[in-house]
Amino acid sequence: MNPFKKKSRFLSAGFVWCCVNLFPAIGLAQDSAIETLKRQLGEMQQQMQKMAERIEQLEREKTAEQAQSSQAEPLPSQSAPQVAAQPAAAKGVSSAFNPAISVNGLFLGGASSSPRTTNRLTGLDFQNGFNLQEAEFQFTADVDPYWKANFILSVDRAGQTGVEEGYVTSEELPYDLLPRDTSLKLGKFFAAFGKHNLLHTHAFPFIDQPLINRSVFGSEGLKEPGLSVNYLLPSSWFSELTFQGMAGENDGLFRLTDGAKRQGAYLGHWKNFFDLSDETTLEVGNSYIGGRNSDAGRRLSQAVGLDLTVKWRPLQMATEKGLIWQSEYIYFNRDREREAATRGGGLYSSLQYQLARRWWIQGRYDLLGVPTFDEGRKNRWSTLLAFVPSEFSAIRLQHSYTTQERGSPVNQLLLQFNYTIGSHPAHQY
Q1: What is the rounded end-to-end Cα distance, in angstroms, of the chain?
Q2: What is the mean pLDDT of residues 287-316?
Q3: Torsion of CA 243, 265, 350, 399, to 10 degrees
Q4: DSSP at 181
């Protein structure tokens, strides 16, 4: 028999076997799949029907609520409801122009081995025991699309009220009158001299101000009526120039006599800000202020300063760890007729370390008499422990020890409670 024919018969028999045995199985599998699809389709239809019924129910409820509200509200044609609606609209407009208001309170207690010397060195108006240190009321609002106003009143322990600051700022004016990257400030404000002079009392890193700031500018700091112009330089890092023209009435530097005519003062400040890493920044600033005294000679009083600030904040623990190292040096020259010229300098260097989310430990060293100082050289060491429950309150305990070339050492212990209520603008970085 031909082998090819034998092989063909074998293949034909195999094909017939497959048709007889496999095709029915395939048909059964297809029938099972179709039945499954039909069942799933039926379940989907049931779910869609339930959803449609739920939507209809919600629409009926909404229609019923609208009908009830329309029945409760008077018709627009009635005169009384129209009169009642007008004050509501006026109230909505006026609230948009209401200023943001905040109040800051400072309560101070403690003891000093020489309260009189403590007051002379720090300007705290301190007495052994507990006292109201200061209360501050701040009002902030947009005047219009071009100006923003900030007005701050302070009340001291004796109840005397004064204008701490009151100014308007602008970064844009109509008709492009203000060049790009330029901002204006008009009014009474803290002069842009160094770092610490820009701070209000409640924002001091320590309870009292550095000795050199107190000696040169007085207990109230360098704040005067004037005009300020800031210009952001077109550099690859943050670099800002500030020019300010002021009244020249600071008693600490210009020593105005009663009824004397102010001669004016001018100030320049150059600030540079660098990112050393994703976690560390460096700020370097230079300051100068000069102005004529009011006496017959109208001699020049001036001061120069250099400040340096390093801040570290770890990315993974930004709310729990942090470090701030800040140092500042000031040299001044007061030259008045019939008085010996007063020249001198001093510095401070402080370190603030955040231990945990609500705890800070800090230290500061002050030195007066570099190179000279009328009252002799003074050294001061201060340590501070702060418990900060939130950004709106803080309890701080500070100890300071001061040595004087012409006087006895002074120990002082201060306890301060600092709190803020209301909408308070953010402080400068």
Answers
A1: 104
A2: 89
A3: -150
A4: T
Q: What is the pLDDT of residues 159-201, one digit of tens each?
A: 889 999 999 999 999 998 999 999 999 999 999 999 999 999 9
User: In a 3-state reduction of DSSP, which class is residue 165?
Assistant: strand
* CB of 214 closer than 8 Å to CB of 122: yes
DSSP 304-371: EEEEEEEEE--STTTTT-EEEEEEEEEEEEE--TTS--EEEEEEEEEEEEEEETTEEEEEEEEEE-SS
Catalogue the long-range contacts made by 75-80 (C-beta closer than 8 Å, 24 or more residues apart): none
Q: What is the C-alpha to C-alpha distance for residues 361 and 396, in angstroms, rounded to an integer?
A: 10
392, 419 contact by CB (below 8 A): yes
pLDDT tens digit string along 82-122? 433 444 444 444 555 789 999 999 999 999 999 888 888 88
Distance CA 371, CA 391 (A): 39
User: Are the C-beta atoms of residues 351 and 365 closer than 8 Å to each other?
Assistant: no
C-alpha–C-alpha distance, residues 124 and 344, integer Å? 23
Percent above pLDDT 70 for the chain:
79
